[in-house]
Structure formats: C-alpha cells, structure tokens
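ok, trying the design again with the full structure, not the truncated one.
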C-alpha cells in the first residue's frame, strides 16, 4: 500500500502553539466541554462535519457559536429546524428579480448556508427531505446547486445537533453517514465545575478570542493544502485495517445491531488523522491520532464501549508489531538456530538403566518377602535420602494409602533402599526400566557452511537493524515524547502506544541476542 510522504512543514511548532492558544480562548469560561471544542475545531479545519447528541441545555448551540469565533472574516449561519422548515429558510429565498427578468430560478444565498463558513443546524432530524437532499452534496462535495449552476460553498465547519438519533424509517441514512464526527454531550459531572458554572456571571456567548489569534481564510487555505501531504505510516494503516477486520468479526458474531461503516467514512477518517497530525506539528500521523476513530465509527451511543475496547486493544497489542515483519524475523531466527544446531552437534542415542516411576509420583519396592506393609514410596522423598543418614520414610499400599512409617536410607546399590524393620536392616531393590538417553557431541562445521552462515547472519541482522530504525523513527525517537502532548487525544492513552512500542523493541533485541548466540556456537566449533 502506498503512503504519501509530507514535505517539511517548517512552521510545525508555530502551528501547534497557534492551535493550542486558540483552543484555550475557545474553552474560556466553559466547563467539561474542552474535548468537544477541540473536536469541533479539528473538524472545521479538516473541512468535515460534527454531530452533537444530547438533551436540551447542555451547550450544543454554545459550542457552535464558540467555533464561529475561531475564524476571522467569515460568516456564520445558524438555524433551528422544524418539520415546517423550508429550503428558503436554509439556502436563501428565490430571487424574484432573476425569476422575473431572466426567467431563472436562483436563490439569494449570501446570508444563508451556502455563503457561510461556519454552519450550525439544530434539531437536524426535523429537516424535510428537500433540505436533506440539498445538504448531501453540500456536506460531501462542498457544492450547492443554485438554479442552473453549481456554486462552491464557503462552508468549512458544519455542526449539527439533536437530542435524538436519526429515525430509521425516514431516510436520514445518507445524511447521517456523511456526519464524520459524532459526540455525545451530557450534563456536567464534576461537582466543583458544576458549581463554577452556575455561579459564574461571565457572558459565555461573548467572543473570547482576540483578533490576532483568529484563523484567517488565507491561513486556513494554506493549511488545507499542506494537510494532504502528511504521511500515513504503515503502523497506522495496518492498525486501521485490523480494527476494520475486528469490527466485521464482531458484526458477524453479534445478534444485535451491526456497526456498518462504509468506505467513504474510512477515507474521511484518514483525512481527519492527517489534520490532527498537522495541527500537532507533525509531518506524519501516529497511533495516538488513531484514537480519534472512536468518535467516527459508532452508530449507537452504547457501541462506543465496544469500539473503545477494539481500538485500544488493537493499538496496545498490534500497533507496531503488525507494521514490522516480526513473524518473518522470528521464523528466520528459529530456522537459523536449527540449522546451526544440526550442523554443529551430533546426537548419539544410548539405553541406560533407570528407576521406573509409578504415576510419576511413586517408586515400587521389589519385596521378596513381606516383612512389613507398604510397597510404594514417594519419588521426591527417595531422592532426598542419603546413604549415610537414616530418615523416617512413609510407605504406601496398592491404593497409595499411607500404611507404614519406617527408618530408611539409600542403599549402597544404585537403585535400592535400606529399610530398618524389627531392628534389622534389609536392602530392597526398586523397580527399574530401560531409558533412552541422548548425548549431544559438538563437531566442527565445514568452512563452506560457515561462510554461508555468515552471509545469512548478516542479512537477518541487517533486516533487524532496519526494523529498529523504522521503530525509532526519523527523529531518533523524539516522536515518543509527542505522544504526551497530543492536542486532541487524552494523553492518558499514551502508555498503550508506548507499551506496544517497548514490547516490539524488546522482541527485536531478544532476536538479535539469539542470533549472536547462534553465531558464537558455530564460530566456537570452526
């Protein structure tokens, strides 16, 4: 799979700091709304849409109005949908002059949705089919058909909101599918922040962003030209593919409502990840950005829990390991070790006499006479006996029940025990068996084989070093520090990314050590 590499973004640190400052202003006076403000700004800069789900009074319209303040020189449009809303109220009234003088059906769009940069449509699922159909091309292609001409809309950000999900039977599926980010808003949870909110006298609807910190249209266009150049590395692409596969598996095993995610949404997700990386001052996406998928994949709020599990476990367990040829390297090392072992050692088999354990737990005495009860002793107890010191030993019958405790020690004979009974010492042999024994004898390998191994060793080790370099990254691992400063992702998720990276790094070191041991083995015999 091809990935597009970015050219150097010289102002990357400045971009990140500019975005952080802007977010801080936008969040001023808000409580427990930082994440949704960040996601809304991310969606706006990416040219994508966001849907806010929540009951009345949780600040959905406030989020939209705050986002409007992020941009300089642009217009905004806000409208509360009802079942009686008409296209005139959203896209503009028909121009009577055009209709009368030129016989053209055109709308006056300047102060309506087609002429706005930030658009907020509240109670979106109350819109009519005529409004929905027009919105489809506006959302997906940024085009509005005004009479006989197609007009490029100025809209960067579309925020939609409702206190309910789209009704299944009313044809909202295409529009719902085009709303990339979905976010569930609720009342403030933290008691202290709740008290701060209800006692604050600050006007939260005032513009909190100084003019010098607003994004102008020229900057926004420049960023949107650079964002597609951000690299999407293989670990992100493979993780996305794994997440997609696991969602399909979950759908197949789940009797309830399936998670249906079409190709267009995956493509939009990649663009969103690129935007996140760019705004974080990076020229490539990383696995922290991939956590944004949680806000893009659910169709029902309860599905977020399963998605969080799938995304987190995929990144934790497979993030870098599926991007590197770890399975191939492990097979190569195992094959190399086996070849060296077979060529540098000769296995000689012989048969020797040894004790025969019963049920792996007991040895049996060959009792020629039956002076005392109990013909079995514990294997571990016999092994602890010495030939000089007498100890009390337990003896067991055929049912392995304890029937006697007598003084005993190992006999002078190798496979026998000396038991003291009625003040008389008697040596009893134990049951034995023939045991096959393997003896490995080192041998000198042929010099041609040594030459072959040296070449193979170098090739495998070079491949491992390449994997280590890829794992380290172009900035010598500095990107690992960036995991802790992602603007849009909770940095408490960073350990999941680091854990997989550290595990893969440790696996590579372990494989290199095994290669060194194998080389030492054949060089020592050469």
């Amino acid at each position: 799979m091809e990935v597009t590499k970015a050219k150097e973004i010289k102002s990357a640190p400045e971009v990140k700091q500019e975005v952080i400052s802007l977010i801080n202003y936008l969040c001023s006076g808000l409580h427990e709304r930082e994440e949704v403000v960040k996601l809304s700004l991310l969606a706006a800069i990416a040219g994508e849409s966001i849907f806010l789900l929540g009951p009345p009074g949780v600040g959905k319209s406030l989020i939209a109005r705050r986002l409007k303040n992020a941009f300089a020189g642009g217009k905004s449009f806000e409208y509360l949908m009802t079942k009686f809303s008409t296209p005139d109220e959203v896209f503009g009234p028909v121009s009577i002059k055009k209709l009368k003088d030129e016989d053209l059906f055109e709308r006056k769009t300047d102060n309506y949705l087609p002429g706005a940069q930030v658009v907020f449509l509240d109670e979106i699922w109350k819109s009519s089919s005529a409004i929905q159909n027009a919105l489809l091309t506006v959302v997906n292609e940024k085009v509005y058909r005004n009479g006989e001409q197609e007009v490029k809309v100025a809209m960067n950000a579309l925020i939609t909101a409702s206190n309910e999900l789209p009704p299944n039977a009313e044809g909202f599926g295409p529009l719902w599918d085009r709303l990339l980010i979905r976010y569930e808003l609720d009342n403030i949870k933290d008691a202290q922040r709740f008290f701060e909110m209800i006692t604050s006298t600050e006007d939260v609807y005032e513009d909190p962003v100084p003019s010098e910190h607003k994004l102008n249209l020229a900057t926004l266009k420049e960023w949107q030209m650079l964002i597609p150049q951000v690299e999407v590395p293989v670990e992100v692409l493979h993780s996305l593919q794994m997440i997609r596969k696991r969602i399909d598996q979950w759908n197949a095993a789940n009797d309830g409502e399936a998670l249906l995610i079409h190709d267009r949404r995956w493509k939009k997700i990649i663009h969103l990840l690129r935007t996140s990386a760019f705004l974080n001052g990076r020229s490539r996406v990383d696995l922290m950005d991939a956590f944004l998928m949680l806000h893009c994949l659910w169709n029902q709020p309860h599905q977020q829990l399963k998605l969080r599990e799938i995304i987190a476990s995929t990144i934790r367990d497979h993030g870098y390991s599926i991007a590197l040829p770890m399975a191939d390297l492990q097979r190569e090392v195992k094959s190399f070790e086996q070849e060296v072992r077979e060529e540098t050692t000769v296995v000689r088999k012989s048969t020797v006499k040894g004790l025969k354990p019963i049920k792996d737990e007991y040895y049996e005495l060959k009792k020629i006479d039956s002076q005392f009860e109990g013909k079995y002793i514990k294997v571990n107890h016999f092994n602890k006996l010495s030939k000089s010191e007498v100890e009390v030993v337990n003896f067991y019958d055929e049912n392995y029940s304890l029937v006697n405790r007598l003084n005993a020690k190992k006999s002078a004979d190798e496979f026998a025990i000396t038991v003291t009974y009625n003040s008389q010492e008697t040596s009893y042999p134990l049951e034995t068996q023939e045991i096959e024994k393997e003896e490995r004898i080192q041998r000198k390998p042929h010099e041609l084989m040594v030459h072959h191994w040296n070449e193979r060793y170098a090739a495998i080790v070079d491949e491992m070093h390449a994997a280590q370099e890829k794992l380290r990254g172009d900035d010598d691992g500095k990107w690992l520090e960036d995991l802790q400063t992602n603007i849009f992702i909770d940095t408490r998720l960073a350990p999941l990314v680091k854990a997989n990276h550290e595990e893969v790094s440790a696996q590579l070191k372990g494989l290199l050590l095994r290669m060194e041991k194998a080389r030492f083995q054949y060089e020592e015999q050469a």
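Keeping the full-length input from now on. Residues 29-207 form a domain with the Rossmann fold fold (CATH 3.40.50.300).
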